[in-house]
Design goal:
Elements: H1 20-51, H2 57-68, H3 81-94, E1 96-100, H4 104-110, H5 114-118, H6 120-135, E2 139-143, E3 169-171, E4 177-179, H7 180-195
Helix pairs in contact: 1-3, 2-3
The chain binds zinc ion (ZN).
Zinc ion binds near residues 156 and 176.
């Protein structure tokens, strides 16, 4: 297409054949990553249930340092610290649930599958999410209902002026083909992660 700039994302896959020594080192590292992830998750859940508060990332890092210092989990200091810190970061990201603060009444009025949306359980969804998120120590971020999640390209950030409800799929000027709902969900999650 002349005159249209396109962004192309490329991914490369590499196959890597470790020596027996490297394979053992990797297996140890993966084991330690799992252990750190599970222990940190357990700690977060426990703190939330007992004290009703969230464990900060600084606290999680301090916990990791404590475990590495010696005792039962001293072996954690024998593997690279980078993947262990990454496990903590992923834990935090996985802890965030982002939802859009949609006015249910408006959705019911405007959308054609009104019957499904007006179902009573749908109205209950926000409060149920809030309750469940609190119970499991997750962070629930409610993104402002005026955030234009459907009109922003989640790849290049371009904002479209209008996005009528009947448009289910669209092509951005950057060349990416979007499913309306998947694109909106990506934008809501990105906004939620930025706020959390
Ligand atoms: Zn785009």
């Amino acid at each position: 297409m002349p005159g249209v700039a396109q962004v192309v994302k490329r991914a490369f896959k590499y196959r890597f054949y470790p020596t027996p020594g490297q394979a053992e080192e990797l297996a140890r590292t993966f084991g330690c990553v799992r252990l750190v992830y599970n222990k940190a998750l357990e700690e977060r859940t426990r703190t939330y249930r007992l004290e009703g508060r969230r464990v900060s990332s600084t606290e999680s890092s301090a916990m990791l340092t404590g475990w590495k210092r010696g005792g039962e989990f001293g072996f954690l200091s024998e593997v690279s610290c980078v993947p262990l810190r990454q496990a903590l970061r992923h834990l935090l990201e996985n802890q965030v649930i982002a939802v859009e603060d949609l006015a249910v009444r408006n959705v019911v009025r405007n959308r054609s599958p009104a019957r499904a949306v007006s179902d009573a359980s749908w109205r209950e969804l926000p409060s149920m999410l809030e309750y469940k998120a609190a119970w499991y120590g997750r962070t629930l971020v409610v993104v402002d209902r005026w955030f234009p999640s459907s009109r922003v390209c989640s790849v290049c950030g371009a904002l479209r002026e209008a996005m009528p409800l009947e448009v289910r799929e669209w092509v951005c000027a950057c060349g990416v083909v979007h499913d309306r709902d998947v694109n909106a969900a990506r934008n809501v999650l990105a906004a939620g992660l930025a706020e959390s």
